[in-house]
Amino acid sequence: MKKLLALSVLVALAGCAEKKPLTPEEQWQGYCRSVGNAARTVMLDRQNAIEKDKAVEHANKIEDETTKKFLLTIVDEVYALPESAVKEDVEASREKIRAEFTAKCIATPHDKMPEYKPF
User: Fold this and answer.
1) Which of 37, 48, 58, 84 has a 20 to 30 Å separation from 64 between CA atoms?
2) Helices and strands (H and E) in the chain: how many
């Protein structure tokens, strides 16, 4: 019983240990996941009949230039898709656009980490 208690305490303490800091590449991967999630949200907005000018207006409120550039590109590409492609299989189209923009972001060269809030 004492061994089980000691093991439980060690596991609890290990869970509270400091996490190692993320490498720049890991930080970029996290940023790109947020970009992909933003793309999915833009697709959801398009599927829910939010107008492009409203999406562009919202994207222009972003202060970080890298993020704003990604978001405006997402808006342009999502709103350029034919409506039939957007509404045919709604969940699959959201997942496809999320994966596409996550991959595009990861492939984008970068020299500094953008200021962003995880999405």
Assistant:
1) 48
2) 6, 0
pTM of the model: 0.78
Report residue 12: phi and psi, to 5°. Answer: -65, -40
The rounded distance, in Å, linking the Cα atoms of 73 and 21 is 31
> Binning pLDDT at 50, 70 and 90, where does residue 119 land?
low
- Domain spans of the chain, in order of start: 24-107
Sign of the CA dihedral running 27, 28, 31, 32? negative
Structure tokens at 83: 């409506």
- Residue range 33-91, pLDDT digits in tens: 999 999 999 999 999 999 999 999 999 999 999 899 999 999 999 999 998 888 889 99
Residues contacting residue 99 through CB under 8 Å, at least 6 positions apart:
36
Calpha distance 80→71 (Å, rounded): 14
Q: Is the pLDDT of residue 7 over 90?
A: no
